[in-house]
Amino acid sequence: MLRPWEMQFWLESSPGQTLHAKLLNKLTSDIKEGRLSPGTLLPGTRSLAKQQGINRKTVQQVYEELEAQGWVTTLRGSGTYISETLPEQKLTKPHEQLVNSTDKTKPASKLMSGLYQDARVPAPIANDGTPDIRLIPYELLARAYRRVCLHLSQHLNLGYGDPKGTHELRNAVTKMLKEDRFMNCSVEEVCILRGSQMGIYLASRILDPRKGAIIMEELCYLPAKAAFEANGFEILLCKMDKHGLDISHLQEILGNNAVAAIYVTPHHQYPTTVCLPMDRRLALLKLSKSFQFVVLEDDYDHEFHYGSNPVPPLASLPDAENVVHVGSMSKVFAPGLRLGYMAADRAFIERAAQEIVIIDRQGNSLSELVLSDLMESGEVKRHIRRTKRQYASRRDFTAKEFARVFGSKVSFEIPSGGMAIWVDISKLTKGKSLESFQNENSALITLFSTEQISPTHLRFGFGAIDENEITRSIELLFQVLNQ
After folding, report:
1. Torsions phi, psi of 146, nearest 5?
2. Fold (topology level) of 386-481
3. Contacts of 459 (CB under 8 A, 6+ apart)
4. What is the reported pTM?
5. In terms of DSSP H, where are the helices of 124-221?
6. Which residue intervals of 181-339 are DSSP H helices?
7. Burial class (CB in 10 A: 0-12, 13-18, 19+), 376
8. Which CATH class is domain 19-93?
9. Angle CA(264)–CA(270)–CA(276) in degrees, nearest 5?
10. What is the spatial distance between Cα 198 and Cα 204, in angstroms, rounded to a whole number?
11. Span 355-404, pLDDT tens digits
């Protein structure tokens, strides 16, 4: 097998009077310090001898000594590997200092640490509304990548580009926003992101904490809250009712506080799935104009609205001058593609681009060109139509299964869109603590509590699971809630 890189060793600074001692000490040191990790394949004796300009027999003797000490293992016909289980050893002085020294990094908030741990753990079968990766059109994506790569090779065009994203994808997104979202924007008012979360974080960087707090709904998307808190904002929570954001309470907050922005998910509120009515949308925009605060609209799953036409986004309505619209293509194709967009006035987009330059210079041009190719050819729209039918069917099946399994013990409204159902489980959980429902094999990772005492609601995601999995998850949930 061809090795991707040739392992290099610098013996000049290694202790020892002989080449044998220098090489032995160097390899032992590199193993202890982690440069050579367990399972690493060492260079062959002939190639290492040639690299260092020493006798091959010297290398063979060093390898034999390392094996006798337990540092390496030799497999006949395969090579010499760093042992999976290393001999017990004392910490090196640098590592002792690292362990004993105080933490030099700025500590993460409890919320940020929790979100990071959740992101590292593979998601269980139930989820809070992610798409089904089994529905990804892998062959279609592969053909598009091949087509774009061939075009790029012919035109030698894969260098640095505009931090706002490739013109092709910005143009395709602009067309979509104009034709499908009723928005009137130009290419210069669109910026490509690595997902909607990046847009939220960029907004938290661009907005000024000195100008006021961030308003969020009392039940909200925690990664957004963590982004605002990480950039110095005070968070003010606005009450909600069965129709979503409570405009009266919002007016009260605005009358008593300086506010820089409000973060909302009006299309399918996270986590309750409620679609904000038009009268409240218009009232929110009038308030943003009167009090001069930014409205950060997270339109994370606009495509998945079932039955009727989706309500126009805030950014398309009158008095929307202060709206920053953030959307994602991750739910359309695959979360791993990490593509989203931001639409706002030119000044805000320019500031976003300036922040992008100091984060990672620009996005993934190849993936952006692939997505623009698929959007312009109509494949994205066709894929949305296909998956919408499946997700709508799963929503309806989930509602029937909850009614069959739980009967009147739970209540819910069938959502107009999205990939989750907001279920009231308060009859089953009254007087019980959140800790009593910890079960890694159930849907209880998405419990919500309005009083932080007993869990009252659960956000059950049906997007990533088929009908058999939906049934199993709901039946398991019934067992856990009735313990």
Report:
1. -65, -45
2. Aspartate Aminotransferase, domain 1 (3.90.1150)
3. 128, 129, 271, 272, 273, 420, 421, 422, 423, 446, 448
4. 0.79
5. 138-155, 167-180, 196-206
6. 196-206, 222-230, 247-256, 278-291
7. middle
8. mainly alpha
9. 55
10. 10
11. 999 988 887 888 888 888 999 998 988 999 899 999 999 999 999 999 99
